[in-house]
Amino acid sequence: MRCLDLRFTRRTGRHRHTLARVEAIPLFPLGTVLFPGVVLPLHVFEPRYRALTRLLMEAPEGPGREFGVVSIKQGWEVGVDGVKALYDVGCTAELRQVAAYPDGRYDIVSVGRRRFRLHDLDTTSAPYPFGEVEWLPDEPYELAEATLLSVSVAEVFQRYVALIASVTETQRDEDLPPQPEHIELRSAAGATALKLPAEPTTLSHLVAASAPLPQRDRQDLLAEVSTIARLRRELRLLKREATMLRRLRAVPVPLAELRAPLSLN
Questions:
Q1: What's this model's pTM, rounded to 2 decimal places?
Q2: CA dihedral in degrees (216, 221, 222, 224; nearest 10)?
Q3: pLDDT tens for residues 3-36?
Q4: Per-position b or e across 191-214, b if 16+ CB within 10 A of its CB
């Protein structure tokens, strides 16, 4: 998986424009991987992203309210110089709801929309970064094969979530001191309450966003343009994680990477 170093930038201009298949969009680097259709709530407090929020609020609903979410490979979300390197595949988020605070902060709700490959960065033309991106639509797939894979992935995912809930319940019964991880695991286990979508691409995105996987695995799933290949990879990953969970009785992933939103819209 390639990444882009933020030290190497060039000016692309503030405004959205199209050159061939490449388009310039505002970026919001985050420590999470966003997938199409997944709800992303954010608390916006940095002045540069407040400015981005105001710009998006002025745009009509639709693509004009999209901004690019790209995962941070090296660095931190907060601070002008916090981000050092980004992964090269991200997903746009469409602004849906905004709640403003008197001091200028915002609580926003956005929804993942379109995947893109990041070709170039501009960190000088606006308070927030811009990226030149190429859209990455999913390839067409053979419906019968994708449907069979979807059934398998859904069954394995549900079993894995049940296993997480079982481990959490066992630890609680053993009267262990409460751990922050338990809160995250219970939220992940709540995915059993969701009616999993039958459509293969949508299911693949939900599983990728919901399963407690390392950031690199999520990023690889986002970059995969084949729905069938993504579902196959998810089957392997879920089986791997289930095996480790049975052996270790703990989810082998850093707590910071268990923050994927579970809602679809």
A1: 0.78
A2: 130
A3: 554 433 334 343 344 444 789 999 999 989 999 9
A4: beeeebbeebbbbbbbbbbbbbbe
